[in-house]
Amino acid sequence: MKAAFSKTTEAEDTHAMNYEEFHRWSIDDPEGFWGEQAQLIHWNKPPQKVRDYSNPPFCKWFVGGETNLCYNAVDRHLADRADQNALIYISTETDETVVYSYAELYREVNRFAAVLQSLGVGKGDRVIIYMPMIAEALFSILACARIGAIHSVVFGGFAAYNLAVRIDDAKPKVMVTSDAGMRGGKAVPYKHLVDESCNLAKFPPEKVVICNRGLDKGLTLVEGRDLDYATLRAQHMDAEVPVVWLESNEPSYILYTSGTTGIPKGVQRDVGGYAVALASTMKHLYHINPGETMFATSDIGWVVGHSYIVYAPLINGSPTIFYEGLPIRPDPGIWWKIVNEYQVRTMFSSPTAVRVLKSQDQKYMTEHDVSCLRYLFLAGEPLDEPTSRWISDALKIPVIDHYWQTETGWPMLSYLPGVDLKPNRFGSPGFPVYGYNIRVIDEGTGAEVPRGEKGVLVVEPPLPPGCLSTVWGDDKRFVQSYFSSFKDLLYTSSDWAVRDEDGYFFILGRTDDVINVAGHRLGTREIEEAIQSHSAVAEVAVIGVADKVKGQVPVGFCRLKDPSQLDAAGATEKMEKEIIAKVQELLGAVAKPHNIHFVSALPKTRSGKLLRRSIQALAEGRDPGDLSTLDDPNSLEEVRRAIGQH
Ligand code: AMP
């Protein structure tokens, strides 16, 4: 594997310690290490103790310290950067751009906080935020933080049933929503889903605040429950809402993530540990100075949105781009136009988004001067080598694959440009991030596996600051889901990993997506990578399908860059053979797909994750299961059609 980074670190970036020393310091002396990181944020009352691990696996960070996420994200910057950009809201759906300075952001957040208080929301109350990517979503998040309310953002693409399940778990006092989202130029009404979820839920909110964008002409309000935000805001234009100081370990938010049982787990985050962890990553990992712009292309409904659209950039004093729209509208150069216009330094996106851009006309990659951009970070799913190489060459900057989970709230594996940027290895998200004592262990014995061998990626507790403190309302589930897989008390990531001779980690997919072929364990990701290396393939999903003889056999679902390649007689069979041969060539006969289906779209969640389980269920003639996060319903039909045809 060759180094992909075309720029070397500059002198100003060098840190007094190298990566190994820095990481070791965080593990051997957590009190000293995190005590120093804690200086990066404002404390109303300093912590008395850096950590309390007297009740494993629960860990308290910065015990006795009092702080507030909103104060750190907004108020703290008023002295030095009141007139500087804080929030750059861009919607290519409504063709709107609004730039808020820190002073303006302060005003809007205070107004929203006053509105919530007027509805009886106070410290510890839950507020569900079911919103599209509009500025009020960010105001409401920070408003909750300001008054000590616990926000729970539910992704705007979820349907009524999912929303109801989350409502019943969080039992919110108030819900904040909008009349509609926008996608691909079309309004996607929300309000009927909100009404339906409130009917389905046992514990519906008392009040629903609606940020009306005027997109749903048929919008009707439920009397006594629904309130128009613009009207409420007008009553609180000059509001100054005092910050509610919270003990570091009090909950700041709940973010639901899918569990193996189908009932979502409410990842509960603290206040002080989260603020410190995020602030530290801006310095050491994303390597961005106060005043420099960050652009994370995610959605506030996901953890990346919470951490790297809302909290971390603002805590750092960095303007954040808040983007509503697709990467290819009005044209595939839109992101680079934004990068140029707002002089973005650090960008964060997903491999899927890059693959979308890769299949567009290449001229869009060079239309805008993006020399201001220093790094592109990618996460959320495996980054295959061709995609990584392509974007790295196109942008001529380091493309950094990094790995983390909703549970951790910030990266677990990465390269650390702010400390010591190691040479990239394609396909590897790098090394354990400071604070994480990561091991790769044998699934059965729990013993550490030798370098080069596959095992489960685990973290030796306590988890560092900012990771989930528990599962909302269910300490037992926290212990059972994350700390009960092995005889030793270890946090399981549920991901397969391998560490090479030089210490680089590689993620091989979920432990729950494993394929067992004739007793050999294979990660779907490995086979996908092999298939992806065939030049005709744009995208692929590999699943294990039950087989009488071998237990399971791998089956591939491929989208070709140019589907017309299959038009000629016999072309499909020829392509299938070629792809199977490629896998055999790269991974050996054991990994050879049983067959390859060609589809024009793959079923994915809105966040770009392949719905392998649903594909697998269809391939085995079962019900595809929970499809609430499915992005494109046609993709499922495509899979059905392909299976039927074969
Ligand atoms: P989520 O909590 O939805 O963000 O999903 C986290 C999961 O996404 C991880 O457990 C991994 O399976 C996968 N993931 C995240 N980042 C990466 C990455 N850089 N490479 C491979 N898989 C990743």
TrEMBL record:
Stored Gene3D superfamilies: 3.30.300.30, N-terminal domain of ligase-like
PROSITE patterns associated with the record: AMP_BINDING
Residue stretches making up the AMP-binding enzyme C-terminal domain: 526-609
EC numbers on record: 6.2.1.17
Domain annotation Acetyl-coenzyme A synthetase N-terminal: ranges: 19-73
Sections of the chain in a coiled coil: none
Record GO terms (molecular function): propionate-CoA ligase activity
Tagged with keyword Ligase: yes
InterPro entries in UniProt: ACAS_N, AMP-bd_C, AMP-bd_C_sf, AMP-binding_CS, AMP-dep_synth/lig_dom, ANL_N_sf, Propion_PrpE
Keywords: Ligase
Name of this chain's protein: Propionate--CoA ligase
Organism annotation: Candidatus Competibacter phosphatis
